[in-house]
């Protein structure tokens, strides 16, 4: 009784704290649309004298076409190769010179660039980033050198990594028409045949202010930030963007399976079910929230169901993980991945997973179980908002998926309303063989040094 009372009290405290924090975030966050179409979102957070500046282009690997996969990521590399005013390699040096850190990343849905600097240096990084939005200038020799770097990155991170190889084959098998079937880094043959012109064309097509969201978070004055953004980004002209084709994934008609043979210490596998993401304009649909909570029921804490049964009790796998992205531009998968324990088979582990899922379908989940998970989600959100960079990341990634930063708090509130019955319902509806793809890694012996030298 006391334990339940403490849990309820803690939940109330978290809800109160988050309610205060989210209300404050709403008041301290301001959105602007420049005349050239660029969206600016400024979140004031004056707890530390630093600021995060992020530029989000709504162009990722899902916007690529066959034969040019990987070009979004390649251009990310080329964006550091100089402009008419800034020489190759100077961008990073200039950011470091003002005591800042910077980087970039490409995903299926977007490409983003960021700098985190002391607040007085914000104008300088805005000027640098706006310059390369419109004045990128790299030669063919520089491209040929950098494409070798990207190919080596693919070799190290994918071709020499059995888990990455398995995931790549899984995605290519699970999706038929969605561009999510292509790896973000690109297929090696496409990289080998990519030209500097391909990268320049991608830049001219997508790197425009009307395809961009700038997020500034931290110890910043909104009016001053807006004035600086208008001065540098506002001078760049808008351009008509290509029409994006929907590329709707056709319904799956049964189990798909793929096997990958690669050097590895243990067998691995992933079971992936087609599952719907949240749709903009349909924030009240309970299914994506219930699927998100279902991942936590199975793998959201140390003693969650799959870890308890497969790792601790049966000892059939060394580790197990569950994933699902509720917010994205394309179709989604509900994933369960595991690495086999010595002497155990993939069939044994899959049977144990199916048993755990069937138990949820038949008996549902406990109210106390769901409450514990909801408390964890709330506490994670509060901790996340302690980070200026984390706040900017959350805003930008949400905007890129087609939602508004204003939706974030509503999503959190909606998550708290999901019932055990709704979690049980999505397990019954979506974790079925008709939408299942299974990828299995068959481990091969690693070559010895003497074998490789022959």
Automatic annotation (TrEMBL):
Domain Peptidase M16 C-terminal as annotated: residue spans: 194-374
One MF annotation (Gene Ontology) recorded for this entry: metalloendopeptidase activity
Record's keyword terms, sorted: Hydrolase, Metal-binding, Metalloprotease, Protease, Signal, Zinc
Organism the protein comes from: Polynucleobacter wuianus
Ranges annotated as spanning the membrane: none
Pfam families: Peptidase_M16, Peptidase_M16_C
Keyword rRNA processing attributed: no
Similarity-based family: Belongs to the peptidase M16 family.
GO annotation (BP), single: proteolysis
Protein name, as recorded: Peptidase M16
Cofactor(s) for this UniProt protein: Zn(2+)
Extent of the signal sequence: 1-21
Record-linked SUPFAM superfamilies: LuxS/MPP-like metallohydrolase
Peptidase M16 N-terminal domain boundaries: 41-184
Gene3D superfamilies linked: Metalloenzyme, LuxS/M16 peptidase-like (3.30.830.10)
Lineage: Bacteria, Pseudomonadati, Pseudomonadota, Betaproteobacteria, Burkholderiales
